């Protein structure tokens, strides 16, 4: 492996693929993409549980510069997303840059060489000039530390480690968690399980999913007339933008709209779940949008099945053959499914140890000084480092908005360095501080601060209680700023 590449990208998911395309657009081709998994696709390579599908319309959940006219459904199944990632990597010729089965462990800025020193788990070191962390937000599976979990004698499966050949029919299954993953998986497990017990700690808002197969003639039109698909994308982009801007970001001014969305979800639950006790237990008691809501036509109805029950009273202990609840019941099971999500703030900010100029440790600095990054991507004292999953980076509801804004950002700032004949770019303290102040003031209007999120247990909030994950502006603003932020926000040397 070339040890002094121009750039290293950590992660071969959609973020890493997009970053590689952005670098190649400005003539940087000496790139190594390191990926700990054995193939590309990130979340869509790792997640293979039954029912996996995108829950943003595929017309929006894709690169705008590479529309896929062949999506089979409005909300495409996970396997199609994986194939789409492969297609893009091949078409834009970035697969050849990827090295699989190797994890980045730590990175340190070498002041003398003006390069990063990236240590890999195979003992090698890479010394790129530019380092891009495309490690995603939800990539470190969370295994809950519930008393007795190691004593369980049956099979334990985390949703991120699903063997597609696993057949759970006829089993007595418990599933812990009711996030977006569980909402997709529960109806599938309910089809064949002998008994399925759902352990819920915090209810989730679920709204109907307007999903349908895209008819062959429509796909044919999308293939022949790209403008038609662009039109469809504009519509789905707009719907999701309105949900986010009106329902979440301007809660203070427009909370009646948020209440209507919450009311629609409550009505859907009341119409779908027959048992009044179960219906009540599934009711969220925080404001809509505090935690990521999800879409499903089957989740609530699964609780009407005779083989499905809900446990919402809390887990006391996992035993060898089951789960004991806080209210003294013993639920016997042979299979435990952990739909318990991801470690976000503990394990992903940043995903590896990063030491910048003056021995500044990124993780420690964020925790001592608040989470912050200019335009969600750059931090002072970390030259030539672009952290794609930074604080305030996630824009809107589709991850592709975030990626494409970041691609524009990378192209502009690194292109400017090329024009000036400079090797190093570093965001100024002032630009970073201004951006943080602006994001902080926007947050005041959001449901996160103006609403009631106390009981939501939302991963949008960090351990200090600040909602520093999502960028509290419209995606239109994020795109505009990506295209127009002053290049003088960076120092070039
Ligand atoms: P998640 O939203 O973080 O949900 C994890 C669930 O596990 C929560 O219900 C959580 O309860 C529960 N849990 C965790 N630790 C627990 C413990 N010790 N005891 C009891 N319950 C515990 O994770 P996810 O469902 O995997 O979804 C993560 C994100 O992935 C989603 O928000 C979404 O952005 C994305 N996703 C997207 C799609 C898609 O189609 N695009 C599909 C799936 C997921 P609490 O809420 O009480 O913490």
Low-confidence stretches: none
Ligands in the structure? NADP nicotinamide-adenine-dinucleotide phosphate
CATH superfamily of the largest domain: FAD/NAD(P)-binding domain
Helix content: 25-40%
Whole-number average pLDDT?
96
Assess the beta-strand content as a share of residues: 15-25%
| Span between termini | 28 Å
What number of structural domains do the residues give?
2
CATH architecture of the largest domain: 3-Layer(bba) Sandwich
| CATH topology annotation of the largest domain | FAD/NAD(P)-binding domain
Number of helices, where a helix is a run of at least 4 consecutive DSSP H or I residues: 14
Based on Cα principal axes, name the global outline: globular
Which structural class do you get from the secondary structure elements?
A: alpha/beta
Rounded to an integer, what's the Rg over CA atoms?
Answer: 23 Å
State the CATH class of the largest domain.
Alpha Beta
Number of DSSP-assigned strands: 21
Give the strand order, joined by hyphens, for the main sheet.
3-2-1-7-19
| Biggest sheet descriptor | 5 strands, parallel
GO molecular function, one term: oxidoreductase activity
InterPro entries: FAD-bind_Monooxygenase_sf, FAD/NAD-bd_sf, FAD/NAD-binding_dom
Pfam families: Pyr_redox_2
Domain FAD/NAD(P)-binding: 7-213
């Amino acid at each position: 492996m070339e040890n002094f590449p121009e750039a290293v990208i950590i992660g071969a998911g959609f973020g890493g693929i997009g970053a590689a395309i952005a670098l190649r657009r400005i003539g940087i081709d000496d790139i190594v993409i390191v990926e700990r998994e054995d193939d590309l696709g990130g979340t869509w390579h790792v997640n293979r549980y039954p029912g996996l599908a995108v829950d943003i319309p595929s017309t929006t959940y894709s690169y705008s510069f590479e529309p896929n006219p062949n999506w089979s459904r409005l909300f495409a199944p996970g396997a199609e997303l994986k194939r789409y990632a492969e297609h893009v990597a091949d078409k834009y010729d970035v697969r050849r840059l990827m090295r699989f089965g190797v994890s980045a462990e730590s990175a340190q800025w070498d002041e003398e060489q003006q390069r990063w020193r990236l240590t890999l788990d195979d003992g090698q070191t890479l010394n790129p000039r530019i380092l891009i962390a495309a490690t995603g937000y939800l990539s470190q599976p969370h295994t809950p530390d519930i008393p007795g979990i190691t004593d369980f004698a049956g099979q334990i499966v985390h949703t991120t480690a699903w063997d597609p050949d696993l057949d759970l029919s006829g089993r007595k299954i418990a599933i812990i968690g009711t996030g977006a993953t569980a909402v997709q998986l529960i109806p599938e497990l309910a089809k064949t399980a002998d008994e399925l017990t759902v352990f819920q700690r915090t209810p989730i808002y679920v709204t109907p999913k307007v999903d349908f197969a895209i008819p062959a003639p429509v796909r044919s039109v999308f293939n022949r007339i790209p403008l038609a698909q662009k039109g469809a994308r504009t519509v789905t982009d707009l719907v999701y933008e309105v949900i986010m801007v009106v329902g979440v970001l301007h809660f203070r001014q427009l909370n009646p709209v948020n209440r209507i969305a919450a009311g629609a979800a409550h009505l859907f639950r009341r119409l779908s779940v027959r048992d009044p006790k179960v219906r009540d237990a599934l009711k969220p008691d925080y404001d809509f949008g505090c935690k990521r809501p999800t879409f499903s036509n089957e989740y609530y109805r699964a609780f009407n099945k005779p083989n499905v029950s809900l446990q919402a009273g809390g887990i006391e202990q996992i035993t060898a053959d089951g789960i004991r609840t806080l209210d003294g019941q013993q639920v016997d099971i042979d299979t435990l499914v952990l739909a318990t999500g991801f470690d976000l703030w503990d394990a992903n900010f940043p995903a590896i140890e990063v030491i910048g100029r003056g021995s500044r440790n990124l993780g420690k600095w964020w925790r001592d000084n608040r989470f912050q990054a200019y335009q969600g991507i750059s931090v002072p004292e970390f030259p030539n480092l672009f952290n794609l999953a930074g604080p305030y980076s996630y824009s809107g509801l589709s991850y592709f908005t975030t990626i494409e804004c970041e691609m524009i950002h990378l192209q502009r700032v690194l292109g400017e360095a090329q024009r000036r004949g400079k090797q190093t770019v570093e965001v100024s303290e002032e630009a970073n501080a201004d951006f943080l102040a602006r994001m902080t003031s926007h947050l005041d209007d959001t449901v996160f601060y103006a609403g009631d999120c106390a009981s939501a247990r939302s991963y949008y909030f960090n351990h200090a209680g600040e909602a520093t994950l999502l960028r509290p502006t419209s995606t239109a603003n994020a795109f505009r700023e990506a295209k127009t932020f002053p290049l003088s926000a960076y120092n070039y040397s």
